[in-house]
Write a structure and sequence with these properties.
Layout (H helix, E strand, L loop, with lengths): L4 E6 L5 E7 L4 E4 L6 E2 L10 E5 L5 E5 L6 E3 L5 E2 L1 E4 L3 E5 L2 E7 L25 H21 L7 H6 L1 H23 L4 H28 L5 H25 L4 H26 L26 H24 L3
Parallel strand pairs: 3-4
Antiparallel strand pairs: 1-2, 1-11, 3-5, 5-6, 6-9, 7-8, 7-10, 10-11
Helix pairs in contact: 1-4, 3-4, 4-5, 5-6
């Protein structure tokens, strides 16, 4: 016989812990084993209530002179009888029940984010994207180490300095991958590496743009704006991406979580910056950005060439001194 509806026993969070098919009416609910629906609750009577259809076809839940009675979910008042419709909730003892008909509307099916997406469907999850982003980041870090060095550089030194940043990035991505493994049963390490690399590349580009903008437009505090709002936006995007690969949260929930954390960090930074200011300071009230040419672009000479040039200048100065001395009376 097909079920007419279902009685659902809900837990404290409103999730269904048990579902019982209703094949016919009337039916009784209580702790006794003779009931059609048995509820294991010490605050429920052995024969607590009866559900039946009246002459008008309405579905009613009637109290059978129980000790603790029936309570509607929408009211805290005890009732002797309750009209049930599909989705109606009521409480007996410490147990919440819900009646639903077989044609009760269902919530939309959620996307299973634990299922690994194909590289075409999710480019960030592709190991090729992680490899490309990592190589680009390492090359830019090596270029920055080479251009900013004022000493004689070696290949080992240029390669060695960026690995501190790379190791920290790998540790960060590994921690998120471990969280992904615990929550969604997949590491998603490539996706976390790609997201972290893109965030670092964006921060680097944002810093360069802010420095040059303030260099050409000193009145615009671009470094402060980029440090407060730009990096805050990058942090929010970073957390949003990591949460997407490490949790089954919906897009709106991830957006709210990432935005809230970023807002807290930006607000704390702004408050700290404001509190650090004093009424009297020897520091200029405005900032000035100097953009010298990178050391690697400047022409350099060897030590031997330097001393040879100095010796040449010395000889010329000696000749000029002798000439001036001979011309004196």
């Amino acid at each position: 016989m097909a079920a007419l509806g279902y009685l659902e026993i809900l837990d404290g969070k409103g999730a269904v812990s048990e579902r019982i098919a209703v094949d016919s009416f009337p039916l009784t609910i209580g702790r006794a084993y003779g009931n059609q629906v048995i509820v294991d609750d010490p605050f429920v009577c052995p024969l607590h209530l009866k559900i039946f259809q009246d002459e008008q076809g309405r579905l009613l839940a009637s109290d059978l002179d129980s000790v603790n009675g029936i309570y509607s979910a929408s009211s805290k008042d005890r009732v002797a009888q309750l009209v049930l419709q599909s989705g109606s909730q009521f409480r007996i003892g410490h147990t919440t029940l819900r009646y639903v008909s077989v044609d009760h509307p269902l919530a939309p099916t959620q996307v299973d984010r634990a299922v690994k997406a194909s590289p075409l469907a999710s480019p960030l999850a592709s190991p090729y994207a992680a490899a490309v982003a990592g190589v680009v980041l390492v090359l830019l870090l090596c270029l920055d180490a080479y251009l900013s060095s004022v000493e004689r550089v070696s290949f080992a030194r240029i390669i060695g300095e960026p690995w501190i940043t790379v190791s920290m990035l790998a540790t960060w991505a590994g921690m998120w991958a471990l969280a992904s493994r615990i929550i969604v049963s997949r590491f998603n390490f490539a996706a976390h590496v790609t997201i972290a690399c893109l965030a670092l590349l964006t921060i680097s580009a944002l810093g360069v743009v802010a420095e040059w903008t303030e260099f050409f437009l000193p009145r615009v505090p671009m470094l402060w704006i980029a440090g407060l709002f730009g990096y805050g936006a990058v942090l929010a995007a970073l957390l949003y991406g990591h949460l997407g690969a490490a949790s089954p949260l919906r897009r709106r929930s991830r957006l709210w979580a990432a935005g809230a954390i970023s807002l807290v960090v930006v607000g704390t930074s702004a408050i700290s910056d404001y509190a650090a200011r004093s009424k009297f300071s020897t520091v200029m009230a405005f900032t000035g950005v100097v953009k010298p040419i990178d050391a690697a672009w400047l022409p350099a000479t060897s030590v031997d060439e330097f001393f040879a040039g100095a010796e040449k200048i010395k000889k010329e100065l000696d000749k000029l001194a002798q000439k001036a001395k001979s011309s004196q009376p």
